[in-house]
């Protein structure tokens, strides 16, 4: 690898790299990916082991501080987060101002931006106490905001967080509990959601994380940076793909078109149609997260006693695609988004909440990467070059009549 910034300054030469396919913008010690071998590790630990054995908050600590927490550290972290789950009552009045048709991702990013207004005197990116406090605030409050975005979209009353419950159980209750009724957390659902959140916690310099780091490089606070990351995640080529996959499966089922015919349309790039949930910039082998999600999909649906034809359709699509030269030559495999939607649907989340769930999962990674950038003395304001292709210099002629 070459550090090109000095070279550029000294020679005036620059590189043109659409989509940053071959450009590292930073060094990072958080997450390792080997896309050819299908390997993903957080701070050196294989994703498979973390998904099997740890919890969302344990992994969040690992990403933030570089080592696994001790039992005491995790207990105190959990306790601190439980104490910060409440939203200011005034912020709750933000939600009714938006139409009930508002997409929960837009509600989420706007509310996170709005959240910063309550902590303007405690948001200095270079004050470690502020950074710690806002890390905890964000981890505690994002799930509550997410659940309120959900409740708003279905027209139900907001519940207060139940801080006697674990992080994930509290989130499930906020989403599916109803005022004046007892809510029993289903342990299968709870464990499955925890696993999915862990699988999403970080993924090195993807589009939303790069956005968080870029915005952070301007000196913007954590709330502004994370809000920008949520907006980047919303796009269908990134986190929005989990919603797009389910819509694609639903359209295939409803149209009566055969899976084979749909795949032909993808290969012919008819109307730009893509196989959503397939392909990845880095993985040129099976995405290790997708492997785990696929296993989970079967287990969860069986445990919840649900049979969903869309899962069968997804498997059929995968089977056909993996045997087809178009996908083989381009090394296109299912990514993390291909099977998650089927599980979220079985849990009872509406399709428009899927990317919001991704955002909750990704939050610890965004925070960890933002902190890494802030603490790296080599971080500079992100400011790509361009190759100018516009008009040459010319004189202003005045408006023509
Ligand atoms: N369906 C059909 N063809 C595809 C797909 C797909 N899902 N993905 C890539 N291709 C094709 C491209 O058309 C291109 O073909 P060509 O060489 O004939 O022009 C070739 O494979 C290479 O693809 P690129 O677009 O250059 O790959 P890139 O790395 O830029 O894009 C991306 C990666 C955006 C993920 C892409 O694979 C895609 O759009 N997938 C569908 C959306 C999706 O699932 N996104 C989620 C990604 S995971 C995440 O963000 C959490």
Automatic annotation (TrEMBL):
This protein's record includes keyword Transferase: yes
Family: Belongs to the citrate synthase family.
CDD domains the UniProt entry points to: EcCS_like (cd06114)
Pathway: Carbohydrate metabolism; tricarboxylic acid cycle; isocitrate from oxaloacetate: step 1/2
Positions annotated as active site in the UniProt record: 280, 337
Name of the protein this chain belongs to: Citrate synthase
CC per GO annotation: cytoplasm
Keyword Transferase: yes
Gene3D superfamilies recorded: 2.20.28.60, Citrate Synthase, domain 1 (1.10.580.10), Cytochrome P450-Terp, domain 2 (1.10.230.10)
Domain of life: Bacteria
PANTHER family for this protein: CITRATE SYNTHASE
NCBIfam families: cit_synth_I, PRK05614.1
Record keywords: Acyltransferase, Transferase, Tricarboxylic acid cycle
Listed Pfam families: Citrate_synt
Gene: gltA2
Gene Ontology MF terms: citrate synthase activity
